[in-house]
Amino acid sequence: MSEANGKKATLKLNGKEIELPIYSGTLGPDVIDVKDVLASGHFTFDPGFMATASCESKITYIDGNAGILLHRGYPIDQLATKTDYLETCYLLLNGELPTAEQKKEFDSQVRNHTMVHDQVSRFFNGFRRDAHPMAIMVGVVGALSAFYHNNLDLDDVNHREITAIRLIAKVPTLAAWSYKYTVGQPFIYPRNDLDYAENFLHMMFATPADRDYKVNPILAKAMDRIFTLHADHEQNASTSTVRLAGSTGANPYACISAGIAALWGPAHGGANEAVLKMLDEIGSVENVAPFMEKVKTKEVKLMGFGHRVYKNFDPRAKVMKETCDEVLGALGINDPQLELAMELERIALSDEYFIKRNLYPNVDFYSGIILKAIGIPTSMFTVIFALARTIGWITHWLEMQSTPHKIGRPRQLYTGEKQRNIDR
Questions:
Q1: 16-23 and 4-13 strand pairing
Q2: Cα–Cα nearest to 281, from 303, 263, 306, 298
Q3: Tell me, what DSSP letter sits at residue 187?
Q4: Is 228 in contact with 198 (CB distance < 8 Å)?
Q5: 84 included as an active-site residue
Q6: The dihedral formed by the CA atoms of 191, 197, 202 and 203, expressed in degrees to the nearest 10
Q7: Coil, strand, or helix at residue 4?
Q8: Contact 359, 343 (CB under 8 A)
């Protein structure tokens, strides 16, 4: 636990004073320790946990006002442009970027665990052919807990570490298979001669009939950046869900499944899917200007612009925009929906209404456009987010498991009926 900085907050309750210690992190606002309020018979009230630090962490730091996102101290734009996804995974897990030898060993470990047990493939047959891929992911990732439980000791650091490697390696396989299942194509098994992003795209788009299928390196690079830019985002809803489930001692694969379920919501991981649905509703370029006028009068909601945390700009969006431009330029796509998206971007970046309100395109806006250009269907957008975020979830789970922690137990402000009796 961080040491108190000597400062104290004083809370007056019913004529009594309670001194609450204040803690300082290496970055960010000080934190008031309110646990002693419970002894006075009171709870604190913070709907949505907007001003509550639920844990202490060394992994990721966000300053929403300044547009800063750091993983283990490194800015996200540097990680996205100077490392690959597996290097970022290593950093999140170990606290430092790998040496060349460490990277080689880590990449090899991940490659050796990309296959899943053959019985896992049978789980897919239990889903309707038109099931949403996220529904499949919740089920099949949770099902991994049935394969790794007998010899799993959460107090053994080696067991925890191999769990992390397995998840990083196997989730792309399950993600690609969830797509193949919904389109009725045979599963493509992982290839250990390909890098992480190439392997995923190969499992997504190769078929047994096309043995010469080659992944476009520009698309592989773009996918790797998407993975890196979504790797972790501090104590968001899905990460908090993983921590809360993990605090009970639950199987880690079940905890990650819980994180996937939380991510599914349109207010969280489903935002880039919502962007494409919004573009569908707008319809054509000539409808963009009238749509943006309706945004100003709050008749419609603008998806993919602004961010709950970032009040200035999303630091991931700049890199994602550059990647978006590279992909669209390389593919030479003439897609009316992408043209429509670019017109939305132009208006948002030039109209004073959106500039004053910091309604800049965020990472979800650009990632949705890139994924569509690559040929990934809208229903798979959140699956890819879940794939990328698995490293963040398991890193937070590892951090919690390696330190003393209590089972999560939020309290409530009860406003229901008082005690009453049944009179009969």
A1: antiparallel
A2: 303
A3: P
A4: no
A5: no
A6: 80
A7: strand
A8: no
Where b means 16+ CB within 10 Å and e means fewer, 22-52 reads ebeeeeeeebbbbeebeeeeeeeeeeeeeee
Q: Return the half-sphere exposure (C-beta side, CA atoms, 13 A cut-off) of residue 100.
A: 0
How many residues appear in the chain? 424
The answer to whether the CB of 147 falls within 8 A of the CB of 98 is no
CA pair distance 80, 112, nearest whole angstrom: 25
Q: What is the SS3 assignment for 22? A: strand
Q: How confident is the model at residue 223 (pLDDT cuts 50, 70, 90)?
A: very high
Under DSSP, the state recorded for 419 is: P
5 — pLDDT class (breaks 50, 70, 90): low
Catalytic residue flag (residue 307): yes
Rounded to an integer, the average pLDDT of 324-330 is 86
Active-site entry in 84, 307, 314, 396? 307
Segment 31-72, tens digit of pLDDT: 999 988 988 888 999 998 989 999 999 999 999 888 899 999
* 3-state percent breakdown (helix, strand, coil) of the chain, nearest 5: 55, 10, 40
Determine the Cα–Cα distance for residues 126 and 138; give it in Å rounded to an integer.
Answer: 13
Token pair 């996205």 in the structure block, residue: 80
24 SS3 class: coil
Q: Which two tokens stand for residue 210?
A: 């096309």
Q: In this structure, are residues 196 and 391 in contact, taking their beta carbons and an 8 Å threshold?
A: no
Measuring CA to CA, which residue among 224, 261, 288 is closest to residue 382?
A: 261
Mean pLDDT of 113-142: 95
171 within 8 A of 392, measured Cβ to Cβ: no
**Which candidate in 195, 230, 364, 396 is catalytic?**
364
- pLDDT for residue 369 is more than 90: no
pTM recorded for the entire structure? 0.91
- Pairing mode, if any, of strands 74-75 and 4-13? unpaired
Q: Which one-letter amino acid corresponds to residue 418?
A: K
- Which domains are seen in the chain, by residue range? 4-53 (2.20.28.60), 77-407 (1.10.580.10)
- φ and ψ at residue 240, rounded to 5 degrees: -65, -35
Report the alpha-carbon distance of residue 187 to residue 78 in Å, rounded. 35
Residues 6+ apart with CB under 8 A from 380: 133, 175, 178, 179, 371
